[in-house]
Structure formats: C-alpha cells, structure tokens
Amino acid sequence: MNIYFLCKRYYTNKDLIDDRFGRLYHLPVQLVTDGNHVLVDAIDYRNNTEISVNEAGVSFHTIPATARKIPRFLLNAYRSACIAKPDVLVASGDIYIGYVGLWIARRLGVPFVYDVYDYYPSFRINRFKVLAWLFDHTIKNADLVLCASQPLLQKVLNGLNQNALLIENGVNTNLFDKGDDLLARQAMKLIADIPLVGYFGSITPSRGPLLIEACRKIRLAQPNLRLVLAGRVTDICLDEPWIDYFGELEQSDIPKLIQACDVVCVPYADDTFNSMSGACKIAEYLSCGKSVVATRVSNHESIFKDAPSSVCDPDPNDMARAILLQLQNPQIALFPEELAWQSIGQKLYEALTKLV
C-alpha cells in the first residue's frame, strides 16, 4: 500500500525532521513496518530550501511555504502526491492542511483520511467562522477521521462523521521507561533527598499557573519541595527560587526529568482547547511508572479510573491536595500497552487496509 502524508514540519514546538517526535513521525514509521511505502510531505513555513531525508524507511520531504513560496505551495503538494501514486492520502495538522489534503485526494480519486490531533477551531488564528465551517466540511467529507482524544472522537461522531477512529498520542517505550530516580537526579543535577514535582511541556497561561500556585501552597507545609519544569514558556514568569527550569530540551532528556520526580503533573485549565486535548505527556508519564496528578479535563478521569488520586479539579487548592496525597501515598496507574506506538500503528494499519 502506498500512503501519502501531508502535514506540518513544525508542530507542538518540535521539528519533524530533526526531533523525530510525536504522531507525525511515529505513525508513518509504524506503517512502514507493515511493508507499506510511505511518503511524508511536511509544510515548512520557516525555510525556503527543500529537504529530503529517509528515516526508518520513511521518505520525509519538506515543501517550503514561506511568504514568497506560498503561491506555488498547492501546486508543489499536488505534483508530489501525483508522483507518489498513493492508495490513500492522510492529512494532519490544522484546518487548511486538512482541506488541501481533501482537495488533492478527490482529484486523485483516492480515499482521504483527516488526522485531527487538536480541536483546531479553538486556535486563536482560526477564530473566523469561515474556518470553523471549513473544518466541519473537511471532516464531513473525509472517508475516515482520526481523533487524538476521546472528547474529540465524540464531537466528530455527534453529527459530523460516523467513520471516525480513536488514534491517541502514544509513546516510544524504548525511550520512556522506568529508571532509577536517584541516578536520574544525579544526571540532571537535581537535589537527591527532597520532594520534586514536575511538568514538561508548553508552559502557557492555561498550562502551568495552576501547578505553580499549587506548589506555592504546598511549600507552606513542605518548604523544601521544588518544582521542575521544561518546555517553551509563553507569558509566564518563572522567577521563583524554588523552580528549576531547564528550558527547551532534547526529547532524549525528558525521560530523565520524569524519572527524577516524585510526582509529575498535567496542569491544564478547563478551556475549550484543553478539554479536547490528548496530552502526549500522559503516555510518557505512565510509561516511566510515575505518580501523576492531572486536572479533571478532557478524558483524564477515565484514563486514571484505576488511580483516582491522580485526578483533581482545575483549581490550585485541589491540585495541592492531590499532589500532597500522591507524595504521601503514591497511587500509580498501570501503563496501557495500547499507548505504545507499535500498538497504535497496527490499529491504524488495519483501518487503512479496510478503507483501501
């Protein structure tokens, strides 16, 4: 089976070509293991030069879409898809990419799959009603819709498209595993004998302040507690002396930080974007065998149904309560094997085979 992927080069603050991170990298790689031929065209807003690399059997190619390249972007994508002669076309990432993928697939006469890993109409850049209409139009006309979270899946099934499948954000279990917390602290130069609470991902007004305020409250009772953070920061001040901020790290360093912490968190506020999200970090945390505290948004409550102490209200007081409870009496959820990329890739392969 020939599979053509159309996606973004830069997403979730990562570079598809250099960082080899997330679903846009791992889904194509897993499909190749089933004997398929996969070509990934990644739209590049930052560079004018095309790049072609072969990684893990997948052909990754960039299509520049800078200001002076945009007029030829659609033509270049169409030509590349024609050369690939796909049996199925998959588009992933934002509204216009989905629509372009649908447009190309219909002209090639092949099935179209729309991979929705976030609720794109909630992005500030997509606030115009015409884009929300275009999003619904693309979903309704897709032959199959992939959703990264259970809330997204339910939204699609409720009146948009009955041909939808849950394809969650998985984890590389070879990289994220249960390690020695003392060795991890030594490797990351963290203090060995104090409680550490961590969060690793984008730090924004809706993803971070809850945890900072919760830790501030906990420190009234446990003044030696420290908060460990890593990720891109937007409009958040991290000047507290008890916060260890590591900046934006390579993916290979994140497991060490997770292993070093006593409790790791998903401090998401209750807004439209977060309520539809499928956080990559949950699979990473569970694969490392760590105690987790996640706010009661999206489908976090069902994910941690066997470890209810892991869930709290999106409120600093309740998050502080949950973190303290996890520090005193850790309750660790088992890692679901279906969140390994190998399992997710097999699930997608079976769906594409039926579609083709």
Low-confidence stretches: none
> What is the makeup of the main sheet?
8 strands, mixed
Number of strands: 16
Supply the number of structural domains.
2
If classified by CATH, what would the architecture of the largest domain be?
Answer: 3-Layer(aba) Sandwich
- Can you count the helices? 14
Strand content: 15-25%
Order of helices and strands: EEEHHEEEHEHEHEHEHEHEEHEHHEHEHH
Could you give the distance between the termini? 9 Å
Q: Per the principal axes of the C-alpha atoms, what is the gross shape?
A: elongated
What class do helices, strands and sheet pairing give? alpha/beta
Question: Overall mean pLDDT score?
Answer: 95
The name of the CATH superfamily of the largest domain reads Glycogen Phosphorylase B
Strand line-up across the major sheet:
5-6-4-1-7-8-9-10
Protein name: Glycosyltransferase
Domain Glycosyltransferase subfamily 4-like N-terminal: 31-174
Pfam family, one: Glyco_trans_1_4
Structure characteristics:
Rossmann fold; Glycosyltransferase; 2 domains; Glycosyltransferase_grp1; eight-stranded mixed β-sheet; alpha/beta; Glyco_trans_4-like_N; single chain; 356 residues
Give a summary of the structure in a few sentences.
By secondary structure, this protein is an alpha/beta fold. The chain contains 14 helices and 16 strands.
Textual characterization of the structure:
- With 356 residues, this protein is of the alpha/beta class.
- The chain has two domains: 2-170 and 340-355, Rossmann fold, CATH 3.40.50.2000; 181-336, 3-Layer(aba) Sandwich (Rossmann fold), CATH 3.40.50.
- It has 14 helices and 16 strands.
- The strands form three sheets. Strands 5-6-4-1-7-8-9-10 form an eight-stranded mixed β-sheet, with helices on both faces. Strands 13-12-11-14-15-16 form a six-stranded parallel β-sheet, with helices on both faces.
